[in-house]
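tool_call: predict_structure(chain=1)
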Amino acid sequence: MFYEPKNGHGLVRDPIKACVVPRPIGWISTISQEGVCNLAPFSYSNLMVTAPPIFMFSCNGAHLEGDVKDSALNARETGEFVYNLATWEVRDAMNTSSSHVGRSEDEFELAGLTKAPSILVKPPRVSEAPISLECRTWKTINLPATQPEIQNIMVIGEVVGVHIADEALKDGLVDTAALRPVARLGYLDYSVVDEVFVMPRPK
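tool_result:
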């Protein structure tokens, strides 16, 4: 089939999210100007470049109380956020942290997660996450939106600190399969990385 997104697809569910998979989950922790911690997962996220390391995530939609979602708002106003690796072991807590709640709610407490102090930024890390990246916001970009009440905001930050649990390393390399990261597919579907293969690049 072929369709133009502006004209609709005619299927039961919008297939576009199932066309670019798997998508890494950016489990983003921030803190508001008022000192309220926030934690939320975003499947529009990735590492962009490595010298310096730049990470991005994108908030789509609107907050329960209107205006911008907490993660984008906090990252823009305070200039800081933390990426936490979501794994199979904490998949339920990650999903719980996606709940639409008021700005005064702390998703760490809602999901029963432990806050770990960061070194260079104020937002806490998820203690249960084996990898966390402390980031300073470089730029926020308002992306096009099809509805006036919706705000699509890309947050781009420079990674200034990297936390890797000792048990996540094997022979000096991150053991991805052992960590079992969770990724987003289309619809309500997810995937888990538990098998890795090596493919050397052509010389």
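agent: The two ends are 37 Å apart (CA to CA). Proceeding to next step.
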